[in-house]
Amino acid sequence: MYRQQSLITLDQFYEIKPLTKLESILSFIDYLLFEEVFPYDSHKRGPKGYSKKQLFNTLIAMQIEQLSDIKALVMRLKSDPVLRRSLGYDYIENTPSSATLNRFITLLSGTDILERTFRRMVCKARKLGLIDGTNVAIDASKLTSYEHAVPKSKIPIDDSTFPNWGGKLDTNGNFIKWFGWKMHALVDTYSGLPISYIITPANIADVDVAEKLI
């Protein structure tokens, strides 16, 4: 027996395959403000440094691929060469560790770059005709906290940055409960795209933030 030689390389396969959902989304992102905060010269530090843009896209991939946590993301990067290539890593290049991604999350949280970029992309989508804005709806999504759940009696009453217990009906009418946060979003009904959002502890009702959203 002998191994048949591959007809095309992985790079050739990548060039001819159709765009994935992740690649389509990444091609739309406006990186202008991101590159102002993280100029190119600061993207890599040392021989094993990673581009800040790559790390940012990697965190987006975690959401698009519906991976549960950073650990699952790291494992997927190691086992999926096509995903690595989509994010700009070489097929044989080492991918970021959990510690590297968590440090980058901490770095991002100290800036307002994500909110400002979101606003720019909403304006871009309106100019392209993707967002109509005539009719809008308010919806909420649960965001589970990475902190260990605590009893309600131990949750600070006057601390709006602390996660809390919340509940809502899912699309099937089932009541779900979680400890964490809630994203309240104003959504364009024409495209289904969000045009405004507010993140609160999970116990805050939609009606309490509706006026601010609008």
From TrEMBL:
Residues of the Transposase IS4-like domain: 129-213
InterPro entries linked: Transposase_11, Transposase_InsH_N
The organism's place on the tree of life at top rank: Bacteria
Domain annotation Transposase InsH N-terminal: ranges: 20-105
Ranges in a coiled coil: none
The protein's name: Transposase
